[in-house]
Amino acid sequence: xxxxxxxxxxxxxxxxxxxxxxxxxxxxxxxxxxxxxxxxxxxxxxxxxxxxxxxxxxxxxxxxxxxxxxxxxxxxxxxxxxxxxxxxxxxxxxxxxxxxxxxxxxxxxxxxxxxxxxxxxxxxxxxxxxxxxxxxxxxxxxxxxxxxxxxxxxxxxxxxxxxxxxxxxxxxxxxxxxxxxxxxxxxxxxxxxxxxxxxxxxxxxxxxxxxxxxxxxxxxxxxxxxxxxxxxxxxxxxxxxxxxxxxxxxxxxxxxxxxxxxxxxxxxxxxxxxxxxxxxxxxxxxxxxxxxxxxxxxxxxxxxxxxxxxxxxxxxxxxxxxxxxxxxxxxxxxxxxxxxxxxxxxxxxxxxxxxxxxxxxxxxxxxxxxxxxxxxxxxxxxxxxxxxxxxxxxxxxxxxxxxxxxxxxxxxxxxxxxxxxxxxxxxxxxxxxxxxxxxxxxxxxxxxxxxxxxxxxxxxxxxxxxxxxxxxxxxxxxxxxxxxxxxxxxxxxxxxxxxxxxxxxxxxxxxxxxxxx
Length: 517
What we know:
The chain is of the alpha+beta class. The protein has three domains: about 1-45; about 80-235, no CATH class; about 350-515, Alpha Horseshoe (Serine Threonine Protein Phosphatase 5, Tetratricopeptide repeat). About 40% of the residues lie in helices and about 15% in strands. The chain is built from 16 helices and 20 strands. It has a four-stranded antiparallel sheet. Helix 3 (about 150-160) packs across helix 4, helix 12 packs across helix 13 (about 420-440) and helix 14 (about 445-465) packs antiparallel against helix 15. The model has no long low-confidence stretch (mean pLDDT about 95). This is Protein msta. It comes from Petrolisthes manimaculis. Keywords: Metal-binding, Zinc, Zinc-finger. GO terms for molecular function: N-methyltransferase activity; protein methyltransferase activity; S-adenosylmethionine-dependent methyltransferase activity; zinc ion binding.
């Protein structure tokens, strides 16, 4: 950030005037600033990179940033399969079925044309030198260890193919020491990447320690992105400088060309950190902090994590088994071993018991039947005496239900009962209140909930009116509210990749036909 003064960007004279947006360059006069604008506007950013004792390097706003403003758009340094990846085409990352293989390295491809892909051409010659033939013969969703080395190898090859990118990558944090403190992760990296590249592939372009460090850089800095229908990872060095917060002030998306765009979801005041989330916003504190420790090697201490009620959302809160009406919360949320206690009767529960219950409920909810809503409805009924209505697992079940009702082939709006429509409206309102607290503004969560809520209001209004339960004036109240929500939802969702290029219009057309409006 500009302090004191510097040299004019144009004439090198002493200067104290600076760009008010990025505060990164100086000018001796207004004329010099105007002269430099054509060159500077492509580099001008509303933030600077600073160092924080907790966050490390992070982005700080140099001016007030409005909600919806694009902060950066960035191409990846490298993209490739995730650490645990099922077989994908190394040319385009599509699913493969085993009908086509690269003639040189024997990895499966989606077509022979991908042998010449920009993603695959440099690594192919290295992989082809393997001491034995790569054997990949299962093409389901099971992760295959032969893919763990691909993205690290692509990083290492940048040293010769693009030295500038390699230097940028090398400057990123690696967390090697933290990884080595995790014996399981250290062993996986050593066996499936370092030893595989050095011994089986016989790669001589880097020492084992450098291969390991690159794996650390990827674990610490990569984003999960979607490319050709598959989830892969990419390194975006500027975006990686956003600090984490469990209540972020930005959102990001990646387009088909793999450019990542970061957009402000709320007003970000000058001097505030620009934040994203490295975990799932709907998870509770226990799971978020555990995942951050395992994947990013730090424990979050943000305001949401520090409050037992998670800003009043109760995503972690249990119901007391002793008095039946009290709320059970952690006595010290930033201490994973702290006991949990009922706020009414004082009954305590050990932290490991809460953790075990969390894991069991996670497995149960993930294992429900996908073709019907009954298991989700049963889940909500079954655990209503054990979990707070705002608990994370109830939130996930309700979020799944609002997307089922009206969207699933077996639950079209015309087939829904009044009770189901009223439940969709009720759950959507609850989730909207939650989003306003933990992911406010122009977030994808709010946009999605608003879209589902407005559709449910229209459908419920039509049903009630057709059965003479409400008057035309009453129906108009529903429709007015729905229009307001639809307007806000479309403003939020219009920039999402699947909604661009006519996607949102197509979704609205399908919805209009379904609701007969």
